[in-house]
Amino acid sequence: MSVSSVNVNARANANYDIAVIGGGMVGIPLAIGLARQGFSVHLVERGSLSEVPDIGLSNSFDWRSTAISAGSVNILSALNLWDKQALFANAIQTVHVSEQGRMGTTSIQAEELGSDALGYVVPNIAVGKLFQVSLADSDVNVREHAQVSKIVMLADAVEVHTHSERSGEQVFRTSLVIVADGVQSKCAQMLGIDYEQKPYNQSAIITNVETELPNQGVAFERFSATGPAALLPLQKSLSALVWTLSSEEAGAAMALPQEEFGKRIEDIFGGRLGRICKSGERVSYPLSLTQAKEQSRERLLVVGNAAHSLHPVAGQGFNLALRGVAAYIEGLAEHKESGFWQHQVLKSLVAKHRLEQAKIVTFSDQLIDVFSPASHVPSLARTLGLVSLNSLASLKAEFAKHSMGQAQSLKLQQTAKLSGSVV
Question: What is the pTM of this model?
Fold first, then answer.
């Protein structure tokens, strides 16, 4: 039987070419990108995708945010999912890395690399609104408020059973199912996919803080005695805080009165932004390195946080997932008429993306090992490392290249550059 005949038969037994399970920050751009490549795409999301949130700056203290690398901006631009104004995107002009109580620092500036920005910080609620509006204008078939109750792998298709309190039970068939339902994926568990997990015995506290001094587009990465912390520029005097501590210390920090919490943050960052005038609602969650042992099977892909969940210290989780989105859109499109659902095709695509995963995972994990309070690396060696990185131009440029998500060039990034996208 020829490959083309396999393709025809498979599509004849499926309602859709591809089903994407999970309509979040990974699932939506993936679904939109695949639909633009001519695939018939069905997106299933347990929440709402039609109730677009009303965004105003009055609630900005409760916005969770994401750091978007320059490489990710290019990918989003190629997908027509980048609009600085709609996203309230604030440019990162400088990344400043230091260790509390030590002399060594590293500073990377967009200007010295000939770039407009090293990346951007965007509120997640703004990302959600832009993505949902774009999804409504796409050819993606959407079923919201629906949970996947069963996935049956057949010889010629995948049968997906969904349940919704609003519209009851529905069953459809697809040639390929892509699991993008996030950390602790229920679909992955349903399919018996195992995970490798490395607990860090840490928790992250996330909130937004108003500072006495303007941040001037500087993202501060600070390695403190309690664990890594970051301040990411959201607005002129508003920054997003990510503070990692031991699980026990995180519980105590969550309970601190606002004024005392602010003083702790001022101390960690050495008063670089002056006094912490106000902080928003705090959110805390446990941290671990989690990776799916299988990211592909016949007619199956696992992507985003369902495939890998990283420590936030390097801010690369979403950016790594988005590079996977770009790679899979490109790869599946190349095999659109030659069995895109076949395991040999999917396995090859995952293998290529795993090279990128390995770099980012190793980089993030080693930062924790080197700069954690229990690190075996002498503090003097850490200081010398930061000083060396700041002094050696070539090493610094390479570090910045990886941080900006531009170490490898994807076609979607090239498309954005060639079209003259303004970032």
Answer: 0.84
